[in-house]
Recover the amino acids of this structure.
């Protein structure tokens, strides 16, 4: 016969198995969430770095425009202040470039700026005696170096913009996947909770309530009552054991009732016999008393006759 300890152990086993499976599932999804979340954080950090680089590139682009304007003003006006301003612009750009890691495009831009700085420094050595061809060569060389620097700066700008766009796309994809994983966790939690309730908790509670109701019916004397539990587990076995116990109890009760009936009939028969005997005894006593009276009367008559 099954005990409550066996049943509780079976239910506990089912709960533990279900909980273990859910834990493994949650753990896998949790790992995916952590991976995607760390990926989002990493991409966000990279995006911040790229944004800083793009801002620096904008600053460099502005300084290149100022440098170009100062060079134009120097060739138009011829004042040395514009040359000094152009030199300062070049130095600021070189300082800004130091913020970038070593890269081929950065190296090319730095090379252009160093050559441009050298060419601007050479402007102070120009004299009226210089030939027009030499002056034009220096002037065109400076403008070519500025144009080359702008070209390499645009390449660097496009490269970093593409990286930022790629990071944004990856970040958006990771956030979408993260949302899906979190939504999946919620859905799995709801369905697993509902499934656990419907498959284990609810049948167990219903079975216990049915057994409790059956016990009350038996206690009230309704020995024909049977509990109907169709589950193929310990609870179903317990229901079968309960029904078997009720059947045996009913048979025992009927057997006892039959014996009581037979015993009662036997007692009634015995009582009837005893009552009959008692009546006969009373009848005999009464007859004896009558006989004794008759005898006494006869004795009295004889005495009178003898006198």
């Amino acid at each position: 016969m099954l005990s409550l300890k066996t049943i509780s152990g079976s239910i506990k086993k089912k709960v533990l198995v279900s909980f273990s499976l859910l834990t493994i599932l949650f753990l896998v999804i949790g790992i995916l969430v952590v991976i995607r979340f760390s990926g989002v954080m990493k991409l966000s950090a990279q995006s911040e770095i790229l944004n800083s680089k793009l801002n620096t590139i904008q600053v460099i682009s502005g300084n290149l425009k100022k440098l170009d304007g100062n060079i134009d003003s120097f060739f138009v006006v011829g004042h040395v202040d514009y040359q000094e301003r152009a030199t300062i612009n070049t130095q600021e750009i070189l300082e800004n470039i130091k913020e970038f890691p070593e890269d081929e495009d950065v190296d090319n831009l730095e090379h252009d700026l160093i050559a441009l700085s050298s060419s601007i420094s050479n402007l102070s050595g120009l004299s009226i005696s210089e030939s027009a061809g030499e002056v034009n060569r220096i002037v065109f060389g400076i403008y070519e170096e500025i144009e080359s620097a702008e070209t390499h700066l645009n390449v660097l700008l496009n490269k970093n913009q593409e990286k930022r766009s790629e990071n944004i796309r990856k970040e958006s994809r990771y956030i979408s996947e993260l949302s899906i994983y979190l939504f999946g966790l919620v859905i799995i939690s709801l369905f697993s909770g509902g499934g656990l309730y419907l498959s284990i908790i609810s049948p167990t509670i219903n079975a216990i309530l049915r057994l409790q109701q059956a016990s009350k019916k038996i206690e009230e004397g309704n020995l024909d009552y049977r509990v109907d539990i169709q589950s193929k587990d310990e609870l179903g076995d317990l229901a079968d054991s309960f029904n078997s116990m009720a059947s045996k109890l009913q048979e025992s009760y009927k057997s006892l009732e039959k014996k009581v009936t037979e015993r009662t009939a036997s007692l009634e028969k015995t009582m009837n016999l005893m009552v009959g005997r008692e009546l006969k005894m009373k009848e005999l006593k009464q007859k004896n008393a009558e006989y004794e009276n008759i005898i006494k009367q006869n004795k009295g008559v004889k005495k009178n006759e003898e006198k």
